[in-house]
Specification:
By secondary structure, the chain is of the alpha+beta class. Helix content is 36%, strand content 13%.
């Protein structure tokens, strides 16, 4: 009998709901003088938003920002952040505030919620396959925390996320020996069912 998987696999709809519920950063304000939106450069009308000191946006949905911290909580995993700033920069605009906080344009994240969720589940499937392979290959070493091959740690390691459209799967076993890669692919297929 095989031991239960060590990496939990969340439901796809739960991940999508988390991404769609990302909070909009900042507080609303009414400008007393003409100000330009930091995102679209248009004049802020009746109401704007201050996501950080020295940075203002209009109230348009396309200009709404969210924090990178809020996004990273949507993708918990055993190996740290599943979505890095560099990966996010490929499909959404990033704003660095003077106080060191990182903000992301929220609309592209919402638009790509399903692709991000699918990529995250693919990553967890691969991590489970690598984990099981390590357990079966060297159970004593596994119990001591020794690994032979590092599993993929980021969504970008298993899928390329595009600005629009579906994500493109990437095989994380390409640099491994042929036998290990074949076994890992079989385990991945078995876990994915």
């Amino acid at each position: 009998m095989r031991p239960p998987p060590t990496i939990p696999l969340p439901d796809l709809s739960v991940i999508v709901a988390r991404i769609e519920a990302l909070p909009v950063a900042g507080v609303t304000f009414t400008p007393k003088r003409p100000l330009a939106c930091g995102m679209c450069r248009r004049r802020i009308g009746v109401q704007g938003r201050i996501p950080g000191a020295g940075y203002v946006t209009c109230d348009d949905t396309a200009c709404a920002l969210t924090t990178f911290t809020a996004l990273s909580t949507c993708f918990p995993g055993p190996y740290g952040l599943a979505l890095t700033r560099a990966s996010a920069a490929g499909f959404t605009r990033i704003v660095d505030l003077p106080d060191g906080r990182v903000l992301l344009q929220r609309a592209p994240l919402i638009r790509q919620a399903k692709a991000l969720s699918t990529g995250y589940r693919m990553l967890l499937h691969w991590q489970r396959a690598f984990d099981r392979w390590e357990r079966e290959t060297d159970s004593e070493g596994y119990a001591k925390g020794k690994v032979h091959v590092l599993p993929p740690r980021r969504i970008g390691d298993v899928a390329a996320i595009r600005t629009t459209g579906e994500l493109v799967p990437v095989d994380p076993t390409l640099k491994l020996s042929e036998e290990a890669a074949r076994t890992l692919r079989l385990l991945y297929e078995e876990i994915g069912k």
